[in-house]
Amino acid sequence: RLGILKQLHGIGMNLFIFDYQGYGASEGKPSIEGVPADSLAAYDYVVSREDVNENHVILYGESLGGHMAIHVAEQRRHAGLILQSTFTTVKDMAKSKYWPLAPLAPDIYRSVDLIRHLHEPILILHGDEDPTVPYRMGEALYQAAPHPKRFVPFIGGGHVNLHEVNAPLYTESVDTFLAEIGE
Question: For 35, how many CA atoms within 13 A lie in the half-sphere containing its CB?
């Protein structure tokens, strides 16, 4: 994620990233309950710092992290939400990628339902050639989201490479979003 972090820092964002339990260098095992709890704990840590104002926090999530950012956005104060390559529900993902097993998939992480309850500005970025999370899921999240919202398609964009496929569009989209919400 170093490339994307450099781009975001380059437009003036201070960043905090973390691994869920069992991911990356984190200990433990990932769990359905643990990943959302880790996301809330990370937010709570950030806003506990004296140099952070929760009214200026922009939540950002990619893929599974997008759902977790929506989860945090529903429960915590923030200035805006940026989603990249985010799915609608786990069951929809199963139908899309593993259709024979879809009936067995848990009906969890329902981003498309949670996003309806948000009030802060939302920016959704999605590649039209995403092999992991279908482009139509990004569009569905956009349709479900309340205003103010913006959807930016990345022609030729995959799942984690939007900042590389079209770096100027990526930077401009985030920078414009931040300017519009006064951050």
Answer: 18
